[in-house]
Amino acid sequence: MDFEKMFLIDTHYLIWDMAAHPIYSKKTEELFSEFEGQCYYSSISYWEIGMLIGKGRLKMNSSISQFFQDLERKSKIKALHITPEIGDYVKQFVHEINGDPADRILVATAMVHRAILVTADENLKSLSFIDTL
Questions:
Q1: What is the pTM (predicted TM-score) of this model?
Q2: Range of the domain at 94
Q3: Is 100 domain-assigned?
Q4: Which of the listed residues 99, 100, 109, 129 has the most CB atoms within 10 Å of its CB?
Q5: pLDDT tens digits for 49-107?
């Protein structure tokens, strides 16, 4: 196991994993297994999932709290909480990233923790100043 690497998982992968998406859940399970203890999600994912549910774009049979408890238990993945340092990074690239505040926080979190951002978002993958997978 490579203890040097740290992976920050974008919210959509968390949703796909718990929904057993036929393609993406297998990829995330492999990542979680191969790099157990090195995979994290941003606490902005709580807000993102709440917004998706509120807009009717996502349905859940459990509470958001239960979703993350189940995810952490199943996948051994932990939260990285938003910090003032992350806020300092967000202000540096306001114009380089789309207008989605969650994406900005994800990128800043990856930068602060020197993590590889695991995302399917082509806009985030195109950023030259972070590593993505």
A1: 0.87
A2: 7-125
A3: yes
A4: 109
A5: 999 999 999 888 889 999 999 889 888 899 999 999 999 998 887 677 777 889 999 99
- On whether residue 133 sits in a domain, the answer given is no
The span from the CA of 4 to the CA of 115, in Å, is: 10
Residue 46 C-alpha from the chain's centroid:
10
Q: Say if 130 falls within a structural domain.
A: no
CB hemisphere CA count around 34 (13 angstroms) = 10
What's the pLDDT score for residue 6? 94
Q: Which amino acid would we find at residue 67?
A: F
Name the residue type at position 63: S
In the prediction, which pLDDT does 24 show?
A: 67
Q: How far apart are CA 27 and CA 126, in angstroms?
A: 21
Q: Is 65 helix (H, G, I), strand (E, B) or coil?
A: helix
Total of domains in the chain:
1
Q: What is the CATH number for 12? A: 3.40.50.1010
Quickly state the pLDDT bin for 1 (edges 50, 70, 90).
very low
